[in-house]
């Protein structure tokens, strides 16, 4: 199960520096984690998961396989991208393929790095990017609406239903609001996603600050955090330059550098976890002598759905899931002692998997 977060922003905001830090970090983890660059601008990054190492140690696992996320460094956007300015067409095509959007906003001053507008204003930068996405959505919806109207006149029910959603999106966009703020019923979610609206994707704001502001933020980042709070959105403060430097250090040096900066962990860890949360994802584990592995599922997924992430046959022939909570697995030093203590639960098809569950699936095909 792959999930893509697209990194977007204006030129010279630190977008590519952040992406390079992510991929360099993953490359540095290669001794523990498999890493690949799918394309020059796509990096597959392990989700930091300390619990996995503890489980592997107890289970005596030879291999550790983390959950992964894909980050896409999307071509820089400029005003007019919705009309094809700059790399507009490439930008819009790529962003349609991601599951969530990370807005990198410049929250630092540096006379050696020119800002495209000549001044530092992260919320104005955000408005430029979001406006271009909204304009692209408006153009796309108007084109599709005329096609659906022809079909609807001949009685096509799907087109009639599509027009209702298109009008809802148009009302939202014409009111100056991204499509993600529209209220969509559960029954209409699939059709809504089928519209492939750029502004319907969940967003995460990344405040790229200077080194001195990495631990505390600054006035620029405060404006972004306040904006995110109003939207009930997520935001993280990161120094992309620091993260790029950290990615090249050995573990001991990295810890010392973080301590000097009064940081408890790399900002990239918070970014990756925020992206994971943004997409409504969680983790369950499988363990054994061969491997300890983290599996990604959606919050609310049932045991058969979780089993299907491993293999479709597991879901089709699902019988039960032998489940131990992470805390119990650790407290009893492994699955056998947890079973002996009555901490293993045999869960059926309706069981909703909890984050951190350690699971063994029984199935019959």
Descriptive notes:
This protein has 365 residues and is an alpha/beta fold. Helices cover 42% and strands 20% of the residues. The strands form three sheets. Strands 2-3-5-1-6-7-8 form a seven-stranded mixed beta sheet, with helices on both faces. The chain has a three-stranded mixed beta sheet with strand order 4-10-9, sandwiched between helices. A hairpin with a 2-residue loop joins strand 2 and strand 3. Helix 1 runs parallel beside helix 8 (240-246) and helix 4 (122-153) runs antiparallel to helix 5 (157-174). The longest helix is centred in the middle third of the chain and has 32 residues, at 122-153. It is flat and about 65 Å long. The chain starts with a strand and ends with a strand.
Strand elements, count: 13
Share of β-strand residues? 15-25%
Indicate the structural class: alpha/beta
Silhouette: flat
Strand order of the largest sheet: 2-3-5-1-6-7-8
**How many DSSP H or I helices?**
14
Helix content: 40-55%
Distance between the termini: 22 Å
- What string, H for helix and E for strand, traces the elements in order? EHEEHEEHEHHHEHEHHHEEHHEHHEE
Radius of gyration: 23 Å
Sheet having the most strands:
7 strands, mixed
List low-pLDDT spans. Answer: 26-38
Mean pLDDT: 87
